[in-house]
Design a protein that fits this description.
With 80 residues, the chain is an alpha+beta fold. The protein has a domain at 30-80. 59% of the residues lie in helices and 16% in strands. It contains two helices and two strands; from the N terminus they run ββαα. Strands 1-2 form a two-stranded antiparallel ribbon. β1 and β2 (18-23) form a beta hairpin. The longest helix has 25 residues, at 29-53. The chain starts with 8 loop residues before the first strand and ends with a helix. The model has no long low-confidence stretch (mean pLDDT 93).
Length: 80
């Protein structure tokens, strides 16, 4: 996995076939996985806060963060 890199992986579809964001191709997979882990940690913290405060805003933010982390994971493993 040392030489594995990400593939271009789009996410957040804003209209059919049109995506707002994507993970760039060529990022070293270990770096992408590390960033995904950090995103998941932040998302987890937001979900705990959302439950504690019954906050739909924190819940929505956590959802976007988890989707971003998920895409980073997919990008890192798709060329592995």
């Amino acid at each position: 996995m040392k030489d594995a890199v990400t593939s271009e992986t789009p996410f957040l579809m804003c209209s059919p076939g049109v995506y707002l964001f994507s993970v760039r191709a060529g990022v070293p997979a270990p770096e992408a996985l590390s960033q995904a882990a950090e995103l998941l940690e932040v998302g987890h913290g937001l979900m705990l806060l959302a439950d504690e405060m019954d906050s739909s805003i924190a819940r929505a933010a956590a959802t976007w963060i988890v989707e971003t982390a998920h895409t980073a994971l997919l990008a890192a493993i798709s060329n592995g």
